[in-house]
Fold:
Amino acid sequence: MSVQHTPAPARSDVPRRLPSGSTAPARPFFKRGMLITTGAVAWGVDSLVLGTDPSGSFEEAMSSLTSGVFQLGLLGLLTVLYATRALGDGRLARFFLRFEAVLLFFAIGSTVADGIGVSNLDQPGWAMLDAFWPLSMLGMFFIGIRIAVAGRWHGKARFWPLIAESWGPIVVPTFGLFGSTVAGVVSFVHLCVGYGVLGQIVARKEP
Structure:
């Protein structure tokens, strides 16, 4: 009687032994994870101090600078999700990550325009560009759901992206109901607990 052994499916959270003499880093996503945390905390502090509705050139510049770093961190997060197939192996998963990257690029363009003071939301073109900010955050929320459903990441890494990426559905209604000051406090807490911690999870993730 022959016995066949089927290898267990690969898990992205289990350390793999690298071949002897390999130069591959043990934590290849460390820099991107730290960028996520740095951007989240920076933008969170800005929201706490200046609120979520900046007025004046200084506040607008600070908001654009900190939120811009945060957006770069999100781009880094997308590359990690793509490399680890966090949404699955299918073409649709890869397409959605690319599509979200496009949304983020336009959102960053809006951030830069606001920061240098050239945007004018009274004009349809600038208003459409500004809309990519909330659209990109909504896209990240759906990505968080998909990561949890796909189950390619394990432990805290499986569900923490959903916690982090619920920023939009939580902070935006808070701003509408209670104003910029309260929303700024909520944004600060949510960014630090959500994306701040997620960045550390990504930084410690092994290949």
